Amino acid sequence: MAKNSRTAVFVIFDLVWFNASYLLAFMLSHAGETASPAEAARNYFAAFPTGFMILIFIKLLAMYIFSVYRIMFEYAGRRDFQRVALSLVACTLASVTAAVLIDIEPALKTSVILFSFIFDMVLVLLWRAVYVSQTGGRKEDADTDEQSLRRRYTPKSRGTGRVMVIGKERAAADLIAEMQANESSERKPEIIIDDDRSRKGDMLLGVEIVGGRRAISLRARRHSIDEIIIAKPTASKRQLAALLRECVKTPHCRISMLPRALTTEEGQKPGAATLADLRRPTIMDLLGRDRPRVDHHEIGDQLRGRVVLVTGGAGAFGTELCRRIIRYRPRRLIALDIDEDRLMMLAAELEAYSTPENEFITVMASVRDQAIMKKVFAAFRPHIVYHAAEIKQIPLAETYQRETFLTNVLGHKLVCDLASEYAAEKFILCSTTRAASPQNVAAECKRIAELYNAEKNEKSKTAYATVRFPNLIEGRGNVIALFEKQIAQGGPVTVTEKDVARRFISAEEAALLTVLATAFAKGGEIFRLGPGEAIKINDLAEAMIRLAGKIPGEEIDILFTQPRPGEYFYEDIDESEGTRDKATPSDRIWLVEESDELKLPHWTTLWRLSPDQMDDAAVKELLRLIFPTYKKKNAGVITRGEIIDNE
Questions:
Q1: How confident is residue 287, by pLDDT bands cut at 50, 70 and 90?
Q2: CATH of 296-639 given 3.40.50.720, 3.40.50.1980, 3.30.70.2120, 3.40.190.10
Q3: pTM (2 decimals)?
Q4: Among 36, 289, 514, 557, which residue carries the largest CB count within 10 Å?
């Protein structure tokens, strides 16, 4: 019910109850003085327009002054009913005072005053109790004593002072009631923030709703808030991320949140929230996006009963890709990688899904090893190949150019050729958005792989497609992992440049969209996922420090360093030269159309060196020949698509 409508209902009903109270009180007090109750009622209504009506409006005014009409009775508790009872005492005193001043003699009779007060208490409180029960509110707070409340809400950990609660629903009411019911708790709810403008000024268990998310920082300073609690377990990931971005702007405030409630589709319904459920937000919460909507039947038709090979299956993306794929019950899923530890962990995790009809297999091998890769294809003959094996760390790729070329180019070529030789139905190259306009070794090698994919698609019956995505939040060697380690060590946190910005996507979203893109792939496409959440690295560092409960610049310093080899300032897919995107059935997958000028002219130049003859200098010269605009020395950086020479 809207705020204005709800307030109007309460005012109208209180008007009726106050009138009924006076009528019953007048009839009882004059029971022995009149011939019948009907005559007493007529006498009351004769005095009503000039006397009792004035007193009733004075009572309504007193209720308003005591903020009774701002209470959210959907979640009302003991304290709210105490406020109503106290306001009724004030109503009686105000009405008696007014009756004396205005000389309303019928209302000054002791029996009328006493009976009307009793009826006010019974009718007004009973009506609100019925409302609470009918709206599914906090019934236990209205009919249990304080001792039972203390047993119901015994905090398992001590709080941190003055608290701002974000949210106005049941979870927020649970947490506020727990804090209020325990006098020993250090957490004291001061204000509530919620974006529902119609609720501004309302009271939830005696705590005022003061504004929306834009007021978080201002209100935190004005009310000297020590802790911000996000009590919105049913909010989407995008909504929580937006709230967190406002919360991290508040210095000296600890941030806590309730975990997101599992939906009924995931097999669990949210229960009562407690302070013990609170946790610190993570970077996933800050950058998280809602899970994309996908047609699981369409994906299942592609993967069910098939043999699927994932190279690089033990990496951050490959692991998540395997988790997604195995749920669609392929006949066999093979995860191939050279990381033995990660392969063992992945096998232990997915073992529960493995059955004779839905088999999971791990293979420890390098995509650069022709003999073993040929044996793998000959033994399993995969229907679908996801090629995620790569060297992707930009500074290392700049330092070890030969290794990067052998893995990202020659390794890809080997797997790509074997997929055609053993009649795979689809080959999906997992690439990066940096390949659209490559400006470092890792991106250039990925671009070469994309172009070879396109050429292979024209000559083979296998459908070759490419999926590009931005940085993974869970990447083990990315800036997020680096910041987490530096924060855990007490700092300092190192940032290359203040204006450096990156786009991030979760491995879960990237994997889910990649398997969906497989269903869209007919051959020759380059799909782009995203755009991903963009954030300045300096803002990211400050946010991660605050999420860890520290203060940037005071408890943990931020140091600015020079860009590492191959790094550039700004990633923006809209600035990729020579590309334009088309929509697909999914709003998070785009089809990239490329101009002819981006085609690689001479493959013979690319394959002229054998691995034995290849070294870093040879790879460097080869990449200069293929991408003449690339400036290698000092790893020139890019801002807004323009090359800045550091020489």
A1: confident
A2: 3.40.50.720
A3: 0.73
A4: 514
